[in-house]
Design a protein that fits this description.
Helix 1 packs parallel to helix 5 and helix 5 packs antiparallel against helix 6. The chain is globular. It has a seven-stranded mixed beta sheet with strand order 5-2-1-6-7-9-8, sandwiched between helices. Helix 2 links the parallel strand 6 and strand 7. The two termini are 24 Å apart. The chain is of the alpha/beta class. It has seven helices and nine strands; from the N terminus they run E-H-E-E-E-E-E-H-E-H-H-E-E-H-H-H. The chain is 34% helix and 18% strand.
Length: 208
């Protein structure tokens, strides 16, 4: 069982993790022998939050209930409220998970709290820009490991810019090995280009 924990907080950028949560929750394009995936929302508390898109979300569990195992995946979305101290425990949990071999995937604003906590100092990573991290994170010392790309994977850490939602998802699916290689390639090509040819290719990869 792959346990995916989607951390939710006020002003969460809905679109940045939409591809990830939709595909992992539905499993519609999973390969036949893929392991089961559980997707749960996690909050600092169980109080409802409101996303940037105006959707109200009630977390299913709190940070202290996250199961720490190599198969665990923690999703950290962008938001304008990451500087609230109530989110410190999930950053500490992210550090713990990375050290235990679990996967942590952070996009946009979530990369700033990882940077400030020193998580990115010796790991290949990206964000909205190097200057963005330097401006917002006084304790950041990972300049040598920064990559100017939309999304990147370094072992069990996946990071992305605010414009990298699609590549972010692709990196996560590849890491979890839930799609076949052909399915993942066709899936990405279709949503990247909009060319219906790739949708037919995608369907062919799923044929019995």
């Amino acid at each position: 069982m792959i346990n995916v924990y989607n951390y939710v907080l006020d002003t969460l950028s809905d679109w940045e993790i939409g591809y990830v949560t939709a595909e992992l929750n539905s499993g519609q394009y999973f390969k036949k022998k893929s392991g089961k995936v559980s997707v749960k929302t996690v909050g600092a508390t169980k109080d409802s939050i409101v996303t940037k898109g105006g959707m109200k979300v009630i977390p299913e569990i709190t940070t202290d209930e996250i199961i720490s195992a190599p198969s665990t995946v923690l999703l950290l979305p962008g938001a304008d409220t990451w500087d609230d101290p109530r989110h410190t425990p999930v950053i500490e949990k992210a550090t713990e998970l990375l050290e235990s071999g679990a996967t942590v995937a952070a996009i946009c604003g979530a990369t700033t709290v990882l940077a400030e906590a020193g998580v990115l100092d010796k790991r290949i990573h990206t964000s909205n820009s190097l200057e963005y991290l330097q401006m917002l994170c006084p304790n950041y010392n990972g300049e040598l490991y920064y990559r100017d790309v939309k999304a990147v994977t370094d072992d069990n850490l996946i990071t992305a810019s605010s414009a990298g939602g699609l590549l972010f998802a692709q990196n996560i699916f590849a890491k979890l090995d839930v799609f076949s290689q052909d399915t993942l390639k066709a899936w990405y090509n279709y949503f990247h280009s909009g060319d219906p040819k790739y949708f037919y290719d995608l369907m062919q990869t799923l044929a019995p």
